[in-house]
Please model this.
Amino acid sequence: MSEFIKQAEQAALWRRWRQVAEGTAEAPDPTLLAAWTEHRLDEAAAERVEAWLALHPEALGDVLAARGAIASVEPSAAALARGAALVAERDSKIMPLRRKAPAWRVAAAWGSMAASILAVSLVGFELGGSLYAGVLGGGQAESAFEQTLLDGPAPIFTDLDEEISS
Amino acid sequence: MAEANELAALIAGDKGAWDRFVRRYAGLILSAVRSLVREGTEAEDLLQEVLVRLCKDDFRLLKTYDPARAGLSTWLTIVARSTARDVQRRHRPPQSALEDVPETLLAVTDVHQEPLKLPKDLLSPRQQLVLTLLYERDLDVAEVAKILGVDPQTVRSTHHKAMLKLRGHFATEGR
Model:
């Protein structure tokens, strides 16, 4: 297929024709123009509209704009597919939001946490208190192991001192 | 079908139908007139004018719309732009009367000699339109083919035949 190139000589011929061309056709009403835009006229009616349009570039602009309106009202299959892909892409990027817990559940959670801390504190205090009472009140270790712990480290040089003094 | 019922209700004077019509088509009308004006407020004024024209004289213009012949969006775009141009023409500053212009300004040398008329059927309407779309609107062959609902080869052939006729006519005239 040969490439169509507008030549300067052809454009000049058209301009010359355009300067002297006269319109004889009547101005079509908007319905007729709209029907021509949508290719709904028979050949004779279309010819009358075209004869008028050729000499009225402003009206030609109207039908070109109307064609744009058709295109925007009836999107192509490719545009619809692209739209669906964009929606899918957007959905995949959105993390589902967690539902906000009711107030009573939040209060119960904080309450149980406070109760746990209190219980641990009380048990720890009780255990610590028992051990301290055992150390102070008993005076004697109940087992050899405890005695060893309470006696502290044995003097390392005891035997050495004895040896020197002797 | 639903659209036809809506229009029938609107023409019968249903206020709700008119409101729905405006909500649905105001954007379309606005975009149709926007390319004809520079500023946003002017486009909104033109939208108002178009709506007034549609409901004027008991919806006289809207009653001429025939859903069997064209889609409402197409029809509305054409009506909107044509109304916008009428309004712009009305608002143009008045021109000076010829008699008020000094004669010295009107004195020009006529160097352009063209025949008064072309043969009536020199170009067919389709040939004229193809040339106008190609040279005045500066569209390419594929765009012209799409507008006319024909294949690009037909556009090329129509253009070629039109050029032959013009060349022949102006060559004869030049002799």
About this structure: Chain B is about 70% helix and 0% strand. The CA atoms of residues 13 and 58 of chain B lie 9 Å apart.
